[in-house]
């Protein structure tokens, strides 16, 4: 700051040194400054004159600072006079003595005394600075904060306009925080913003931003609409326009709404030249205290309270008579309306709204008269407004910001004998001066139901009619003209003439319908084909109800026509689909029946005794539980010309006719190949060629064995199949897993053979995977369970196979084949 200007926290010798400078001298100095400035602008050459002007300006600033300091000292002397009951002179001596003892200047002590007496937001801010100091604060730091804030307060309260308030806030309170400019905005009744005071911004910049229309998003409007402090570390980075952006593009901004009693009177916007780091909490509290000071100042200044404003229809309402004028305005409305004014608590905080007036069209949901709610608090009269509808919060927001609120189909709830009654209404909330006008229009239930009925008739292609049989007058719904293909200028079709507009085959149906309605006077309904003038045939259903007149005779018939063409064609298509589905199911059943017959003819559930010396052979075949899943499991046990016995089981992939056909091909091919006397490995190799080249992509698994009764040896091989199980004595084990891919997978492949010498009493079991497959069990666990069952003692081979099938509950809808041989 310039020379002669006291810095907050100094011992303030300027107070005593400049005490002799009177207000008259200050005024004369100001005039001298103005005259000197004029001379400087005219001459622009005299450097000594410019220095003189600068000196005089410094003296004026020093005089202003001294006057502001004297105001604080005088206020502190008044507090001492009130507390000690002494005179002004003794209070001045007491202040000086206390300042000397405390090592403070009189100005710093005066600010501390005022804080102790006021206990307001400024005092709380100073105390917070002291409490939150991390390290030892500099000497006089708290007093410096108190001096700055109280000096700013004194200057603001004594200022003659908002411009002086802005300059005082910047000079005394904000420049020590690093701020370079400040703007004070006031809000209009239409949420517009007007620049009423500024410091640190150029005059041209302020002229461009003197007015911000409603709806333009600026930093100040963000704080106003959000009712919260808005911080921008860099205004350019945020992309939000505001005053001074061109001069300080990277500077930070803090924008604080300035309000009292629940109403925002303006916005305080503070500008920094550089990007802004997060502010300490104590600094934020200082800024909030300054915003509150600014709000009280704006509330008292004439500029912040214009003499009048515009309400709907352009009616002027004086600011001091806004509630009375709003009451008069609301009585001219055709909708129910309430005039609300703020209700504050002892601390000046908005807690409710007072119902100042209920207009002539007011209707209370609980049936109370207007006088019962006039003068009552809103939350007491209508406690549900603070519930889920958030209506109270909407009113509070409108009052705070001035931004009107409009909404359709809002649910309003009122308590009638502690029972909540809800209704839908269109609402309007607006602020006018110190009052809020709340207007609502309850949705007409009959109109809403009529609208719903009209939409339902359109969607259902239904048209209503009414025919007066006495006068001949006919009333048609507009939908009927479209159904009948008639222009709205053509006359409606009478019921007696309806037979002339239907298909000849349906004329008798329509005549029976008319007989029932017009003569028997009973409710009737009929469906017919209507022939329209445009050649289109529509399927229509008509329903009519006769209504007798006062003399008991038939006077009126009411009813409806419905276009059921879509339903008719849907039913036709559905019937055709049912017929096709029935034919398909019948064909499928016949196909499955033939397939099962083929399968059972080739693969009977049991086989006749096999003439093999020293060998007992038994077979079990269990088809799938579902007849629609014909599988490809197969088995064979036959004595070859060499007196050896061919034993095999297999499983063709898939189900149905294809699987059954593939099973027949592979089984017969293996029988023919076995006549050659080849071993099981060679037989599977040849069978693989058959599956790969001579069938339509058939793949299968199989296990094949050749038993020699003379040597009691079993040579066997496998193609992707589970190995056989050997039961010897009280033990059961599965044979080794030989190499061999499934049949049909490769064009050429070889299969590994193994030889097993059997002893009297041994049993060999060959089976398909249907015996062990479970959806929720691993294969090796199922095989272990199979071995456990096979170990159990059995009276005969037949009984052993029955035990295996009984203990096996397959859940994979697959066939099961088991071939057992026992040596004796």
From TrEMBL:
Coiled coil: none annotated. Gene3D superfamilies: PAS domain, PPM-type phosphatase domain, Winged helix-like DNA-binding domain superfamily/Winged helix DNA-binding domain. Keywords: Hydrolase. GO terms for molecular function: phosphatase activity; RNA binding. Residues 524-576 form the PAC domain. The keyword Hydrolase applies. Residues 53-114 form the ANTAR domain. Pfam families: ANTAR, GAF_2, PAS_3, SpoIIE. This is Antitermination regulator. It comes from Streptomyces showdoensis.
